[in-house]
Amino acid sequence: MTLLRGTLERLVNHIWYRGSVLSWVLLPLSWPVRWVVGRRRRQAPAKGGTPSGMSVIVVGGLTAGGTGKTPVLIALGKWLMGRGYRVGVVSRGYKGRRPTELHWVAETDSAAMVGDEPALIRRDLKVPVLVGRDRKMALNTLAQGGQVDVVLSDDGLQHYGMPRDVEIVVLDAERGLGNGRLLPAGPLREPGSRLASVDWVLERNSDDPGRGFFYQPTVATHLATGRAVPWQDCVADWHQQAVVALTGLGQPGQFFTMLAEQGLGLRTVALADHEAITAVHLESCVEPVILVTAKDAVKLPRETDPRVWAVEIEVALPASLLARLEGLLPAPAQIDC
After folding, report:
1. Residue 102's closest CA among 90, 87, 117, 115?
2. Which sign, positive or negative, has the C-alpha torsion 332, 45, 117, 194?
3. pLDDT tens readout for residues 3-44
4. Is the dihedral angle over the CA atoms 45, 48, 51, 52 positive or is it negative?
5. What is the CATH code of the structural domain delimited by 42-213+317-328?
6. How many CB atoms lie within 10 A of CB 6?
7. Domain residue spans of the chain
8. Omega before 184 cis (within 30°)?
9. Phi and psi of 243, rounded to 5°?
C-alpha cells in the first residue's frame, strides 16, 4: 500500500509540474472544481467580522502539498508572542483520529490522535491549539475563553466560512503554481488569480527579499535521550560518517538539499506524504546516523532507535511582512496582573 501510494504521488507530481500530457486528459474534471470554488468564493464574507478583540491570520496555500506553511506559522507565532500577543492556533488536524469534533491539543497527545502538524505546533509554541474540521466553530471556541489576541489558522485559506483579517499564502519558489491548472489536472486549489486578493505571498527559497524565506538548521535532538546539540557541532561530528536522511514530507527534496548543502554525505529515503516512520523503516537503515525532520519526530515514540536525530529548523520571515503586520494588527491587549 505504501509503495502504491508513493508511486501515485510521483505520478501526480509529474502531471502537475513536468508538463505531462496526462494533465489534458484530467482537464475536464477540473471544470466542476472551478465552478464549485468560484461559487463558494462569491458567497464568502469580506475580510473582517472576526470575534471582538481577536485578530485572525490565515497561513495557507494555493497548491496541494507541502510548501512550508507549518514552519512559517511557528515562526510567526514566536514573533507575535515576542511582541506581547497572546496566540492561539486552529487546525484541521489532518489524519488525526481524535474522539471528538473539537479537541484541545495537549502535550501528551500523540500525532496519531491530533495530526502531526498540530502536535508540532503545540510542542514548539506551547499555546492553545484547537483541532477540528469546522474552523469557524474552533475559532469561536477560542474566542469564548478571552485568553487569545491573535489566532493563527494552520492552512484553511479555502475554508471560506471562517472569518479572517489577514491572509498569507505560502508557495515554493521552484514549483510555483505548477502547470497553473486546478485539481486534479493541476496542483491548484483555487485559480492563480486568487493571489491578487491575499495580503502577502511568501515563497520558500526565493531570492526576493520581500517574499523569500529559507530553512536554517539550528540544533539536532537525539530522540532517545532528548539531548539537543548545536547543529554545527553535529555537522562536525557526522562529516566523515555514513548518514541517511529519512522523511515523510510532501516535498522531501527540500529536506535532502538542505542537509547536502551542510556538507553531509547522504543516502536519502523518501516516504509518502505524512507517512509515519516505523521500526521496519529504521531497521532497514544500516547507517550509524539517521536524520529526520521535526514533523517526522513527533510521530515517533521516545523509546526509538538510538541512531535517530531530529533536525530542528528556524525560519526568518521577511522584515517587510513583519512591518506590514505591525500596521494591520491592533496593539497587544494590556493584561492586569
Report:
1. 90
2. negative
3. 666 678 888 989 999 989 999 999 999 999 999 999 999 988
4. negative
5. 3.40.50
6. 15
7. 42-213+317-328, 215-315
8. yes
9. -130, 140
